[in-house]
Amino acid sequence: MEKIIECVPNISEGKNREVIDQVIENLKKTNVKILDVSMDPDHNRSVITFVGNKESVIDGAFAVAESAVKLIDLRHHKGTHPRMGAVDVIPFIPIKNTSMEECIEISKIVGKKIGEELKIPVYLYAESATKEERKSLPNIRKGEFEGFFEKIKDPNWAPDFGPSEVHPTAGVVAVGAREFLIAYNIYLGTKDVSVAEKIAKSIRESSGGLRFIQAKGMFIEEKGMAQVSMNILNYKKAPLYRVFEIVKMEAERYGVPVVESELIGLMPIRAVLESLSFYLRFPKIDENSILETKIFE
Amino acid sequence: MEKIIECVPNISEGKNREVIDQVIENLKKTNVKILDVSMDPDHNRSVITFVGNKESVIDGAFAVAESAVKLIDLRHHKGTHPRMGAVDVIPFIPIKNTSMEECIEISKIVGKKIGEELKIPVYLYAESATKEERKSLPNIRKGEFEGFFEKIKDPNWAPDFGPSEVHPTAGVVAVGAREFLIAYNIYLGTKDVSVAEKIAKSIRESSGGLRFIQAKGMFIEEKGMAQVSMNILNYKKAPLYRVFEIVKMEAERYGVPVVESELIGLMPIRAVLESLSFYLRFPKIDENSILETKIFE
User: Fold this and answer.
1) Where in chain A is the domain with CATH 3.30.990.10?
2) Which of B84, B127, B210, B224 has the highest CB neighbour number within 10 Å of its CB?
C-alpha cells in the first residue's frame, strides 16, 4: 500500500514562463508525479501540484524552494495576491495510506531543511503550527515581504526554523500540513453582486457562518453573473452538499436562483461520495465502491 | 493511454470452493487484474470480475471458459438462477480508452475461439447480438440447459459460433459486449412488499417505465423493509439520480418514505459524477476533476 501525499507549493512568479519552466525542470529530477502547474499573471503567482510518497515529496518540496530562492527576487515582485516569500507557502496534504500526523512530520523535516540550507526563516502553519496565531496563513502573511523585516523582530514572530533575519531576496516561507482544500464557486442568477456578498457573509466562518468556509461575493464579467467564491478548508467537516444547500437557501430569500456550481482544480473522490450519499441516502459508500479505485488500488 | 476492458464471466458453480479456486488459479496465469470473485450458493453460480487490455481479457475470458467446461457438469447442476452453460455468460464492458465497438470485436474473437476450441455453441448477445431477439440474455436463456437440446434445432436459434449441437456437459454460452451494469436497491420505510412491487412496476422498462431499468419488489428480512431491487443496464442513459427521484416520487404517493440506497458491487466514477452534477448543478465535471483519477491516469 503505497503512501500518497500531495504537496502544493505556491511561488511568487506568475508571468515569466522561463522561471516556471526551470522550477519544473528541477522538480522533475525528483520522484514526484506532477499533477498540475497553474500560472496566474494577475496574481503574479504560480501553484504547482504534485504527489508522491514521503521521501519524494520531501525532495520535491525542497527542489521547488531551492529553485524559487535562486530565480525569484521579491524586491522586484508585484501582483494582486499577498505574498511574503519567493516560495510563499508549502502545504502537505494526506491523500492515501498516510495521516495528518505524518504530513506534520514531513512539514517539519522540510521546514528544517529549508531553514538550514536555504537560509530562509520558516513558519510552521495550519496543522503544523506551534502557536495558535500561526494556524492561519493570512495571519502569518500580514505585512507581507516588505513588512517582515520589522515583524520578525517581534519575539512572537520568531521563526520556527532558519535564521532570525528575513532573506534579502526570498523573504520568509510558511510550511505546514492541512486537509485538502476545495475551491468551489456558485453562480447566482443575478448581476447584483451585493446579493453574492450578503450570501458570502452568511456562509463564511469569519462572519459567523460555517466553520472551514472562506467566501466572498464577486461579479464575473465573462458570465455576466454574481458569484459566491469559496474555499472549503475541510471538506470532511464542511461537505459540498451542505455548502450548496445553504447558499441556495440564502439565495431564495432574495428571490435569486442558483444557476451553477464551479470547481477550480481538483477534488478528492471522498468529497464526491459524501455528497452523493446525502442526496441518494447511501448509509455507506466509499472508495471501494468505485470501479476505477478498485482497478488502480 | 492503456486500454481497460472489464469482463464479468458467470459460471454455474456457487457451492464447491475447490472448483472456483481452480478456475481462479488458471485465470491468474493470464495478465488480467482480478477485482472480485462472488460465489452464491443459493444461485449455485459465481461471478468473476476482472479487467485488462484487449489481449489479456481475451486470454482471461478463454481461460475461465476452458476451466468451467473441464470442471462443471451441468447435468448435475441445481440452483435458483436460470442457466444454460457451465460458463453461462461472458460480457465485455468498455471502461477506459476503448469503445463499445472494440468490445464487440473482442466478444466475437472470444466467441469464435470458444466455439472452435471448446466445442460449445456460442450466442452473441447484447450489443454483439446478430439478431434482435438475441439482444436479451433472458430471451436466449429461455428453456435453459435442458431445453437447449431441442431449441438449438430451430434455425432461428442456430448458434453464431461453434457446433450446432449442445455440448453434453457444458451446454451453450452467451458472449457479448454491454455497458457497465449497476445493481442498485432502494429501501422503503414500510414492510408492505406490495408498495415496492407497485413502484418497481412503475419504473421498469418492461412495464412501460424508464428504459434500461429492470426492477422488482422484495421484502428484505434482515432489514425488515420492503425494497425496490434494480439493475441499471445503462447508467449513462438512466442516471442514478433520476432512478432515485422517480422511486421517491412514486413512494410519496403511498405515503412511504425512501429510507436508504444500496449499491451491490461497484459503480464507475462517471455514474457518481453524473448524479453529483445534477444535484449541485455542475455544468461540466468529469474524471479529470477528481484527484485520484489524476494521480492514477
Assistant:
1) 4-177
2) B84
Domain at B4-177, CATH from 3.30.990.10, 3.30.70.360, 3.30.565.10, 3.30.450.20: 3.30.990.10
* C-alpha–C-alpha distance, residues B181 and B204, integer Å: 15
Check CB contact under 8 Å for A295 and B51: yes
Give me the average pLDDT of each 10-residue run along chain A (297 residues).
92 95 97 92 90 97 98 89 94 95 98 98 98 94 95 96 97 96 95 97 95 93 92 95 98 97 91 96 89 82
When the candidates are 3.40.50.300, 3.30.70.670, 3.30.930.10, 3.90.180.10, the CATH number that belongs to A182-291 is: 3.30.70.670
Chain B residues with beta carbon closer than 8 angstroms to that of A266: 289-291, 294
B contacts of A291 (beta carbons < 8 Å) = 6, 35, 95, 180, 266-269
With CB atoms and an 8 Å threshold, state whether B6 touches A291.
yes
Angle subtended at Cα A272 by Cα A248 and Cα B266, rounded to the nearest 5 degrees: 135
Give the per-residue pLDDT at B166: 97
Model ipTM value: 0.82
Interface probe for A, chosen from B258, B292, B294, B297 (most Cβ of A below 10 Å), is B292
CA–CA gap between residue B223 and residue B80 (Å, rounded) = 22
Rounded percentage of chain B residues whose pLDDT exceeds 70: 99
CA A225 to chain centre: 25
How many angstroms separate the most distant Cα atoms in chain B?
A: 58
Q: Where are the domain boundaries for CATH 3.30.70.670 in chain B?
A: 182-291
Give me the count of residues in chain A.
297
Q: What is the pLDDT of residues B57-109, one digit of tens each?
A: 999 999 999 999 999 999 988 887 889 999 999 999 999 999 999 999 999 99
Q: Is B81 a residue of the active site?
A: yes
Residue B215: name the closest of B235, B186, B255 by CA: B186
B159-213, pLDDT tens digit by residue? 999 999 999 999 999 999 999 999 999 999 999 999 999 999 999 999 999 999 9
Q: Which residue in the set B33, B268, B276 is minimally distant from A272, CB to CB?
A: B276
Average pLDDT, chain A: 95
Using an 8 Å CB-CB cutoff, list chain A residues near B6.
Answer: 291
Q: Is the pLDDT of residue B43 over 90?
A: no
DSSP-derived letter for residue B142 is: T
Contact B262 A282 (CB under 8 A): yes
| Chain B residues touching A263 at Cβ < 8 A | 282, 285, 289
Query: In terms of Cα–Cα distance, which of A58, A43, A50 is closest to A11?
Result: A43
CA proximity to A54, closest of A28, A31, A34, A29: A31
d(CA A253, nearest CA chain B) in Å: 19
Q: Do B295 and A241 touch (CB under 8 A)?
A: no
Q: What does the alpha-carbon distance between residue A21 and residue A16 come to, in Å, rounded to a whole number?
A: 9
Do the chains contact at A280 and B275, CB–CB below 8 Å?
Answer: yes
